[in-house]
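Section: Multi-chain targets

For targets with more than one molecule, the full set of components is provided together so that the structure can be written out for the assembly as a whole rather than chain by chain. Components appear in the order listed by the source. The example entry contains two components.
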Amino acid sequence: MDIGVLLVYGILGLTVIVSAIGLIVSRNALYSALFLVVNFIAVGLLYLALGAPFIAFAQVTVYAGSIMVLFIFVIMLLGAENLPLTEPLRGQRALGILLVLIFLAEIVLYYLLRTTPLQAIPIIPQTFASPAEIGMILFNRYLLPFEVTAFILLAATVGAILLSKHEGPTRPKPGIQKPETPVEG
Amino acid sequence: MITAAQFWEWVIKSLIIILVLTGGFAYVTLYERKVLARIQARVGPNRAGPFGLLQPVADGIKLIFKEELTPAGADKLLFTLAPVITVIPALVVTAVIPWGESITLFGKTYTLYLTDVNVAILYIMAVTSISVYGIALAGWSSNNKYATLGGLRATAQMISYELALGLSFVGPILLTGSMSMLEIVRAQQGLWFVFLQPAGFVLFLAASLAEVNRAPFDMPEAEQELTAGYHAEYSGMKFALFFMAEYIKMIAVSMIGATLFLGGYLSPLAMLSNLPVIGWVFASGPHWLFLKVALWLFFMIWVRATLPRIRYDRLMQLGWKIMFPLGLVNVIVTAAVVVFAGG
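Its structure, encoded as tokens over all components, is:
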């Protein structure tokens, strides 16, 4: 393999892993969110390196650029930077470590017990990930899931608006209630 | 496989883009001060060099020698990183803008664009959406209430106007059938998109002013309410970086707007390009893009000198209740026309 290619993937992979660990370890919510942003961007760059520019830029725009901005907005607005040192739900950490061990064991077992030899992924044509191609697939083969997702998102938006809507005027309208005039005695 | 010659071509082109943008930043500040002065019946800077042409140099030297303060209780790491995070997206966003077709130097033909990707518009969207972080973090890390409020306002404003901005991009994409900037410019050979997409053009104009936090949408740094907004605690070179980012973003949105709607590097007088001696002036090329950008910048400065700042709640209403629906209608109408007229 070319040394340059190896270097690019090495640096990107390392960034992804380090930022993911930083996200978990950091005790400041804002730093955690920023680590997640770095993670999203690095994963987006990996997509780009693998020849999927549409997915890469969509990932950066939607996840790193919009969703995480809202996260940071909320953290800054509420002043909720400092995370509690104790776990709100007990036993999470032990369960997490257990699941990681199972996952690692699974990978090792798959590698050892596989029946077919490992082979390189067949090279896909250059136009596979072009915006036009993705549009065709999305609106032909996956039309139903696409529309269902759109409806779910619409329902969520309407729900959010309804929840945040004021229920009628809480204060009396000016002009209806006249200020009391002191009675002269 | 990338050859060494190709690699160095990229490096040199990138360097030229960065140098033009930073040099442009210096002179756009002078341009703005001169134009503002003229509009207000003043003379403007005229002491440093002929016509005040060395004023940016003097400003730069002043800022380099200024003391840099870091407030007590500030988050040191983010306070230092925030100006850098703000400048980098501004510097890289114009990488996909074509400056012209090609040029022949020393018997070798070079293309006048860094790269022609088929997702250029998505690249611009991605980079502009990242540029919010610098401002938000600058406000938060200063440990100052005014700065934090400025940062929060900037975040809310930029998210709101990104939608309208993104929707205004869709018109040219639909008319061209491609997201490549080069294709979009070539599709405007006959007629500029500003005539086919007037609503999209107006949307882009307003949303881009909000996106770069310029008047009348300069809410994040509203001096009267927030002292100086997110950069209240910054001084010296760190402040200069914010200043630089703002002006480079102005240049960048002018370049993007000129490319999407005003025909980019195309010349409106191309039929005169066969004239002897002065023919090159009328031929398409980077100088036409430069002229369009200069006019667009003049318009931005003019707006700043003329319009008062919009109130914050009105700004959000304008973004969500007027510009966003207008953008959606524009997209639907354009798509219908393109489909039924067989564009």
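Residues 14-340 of chain B form one domain.
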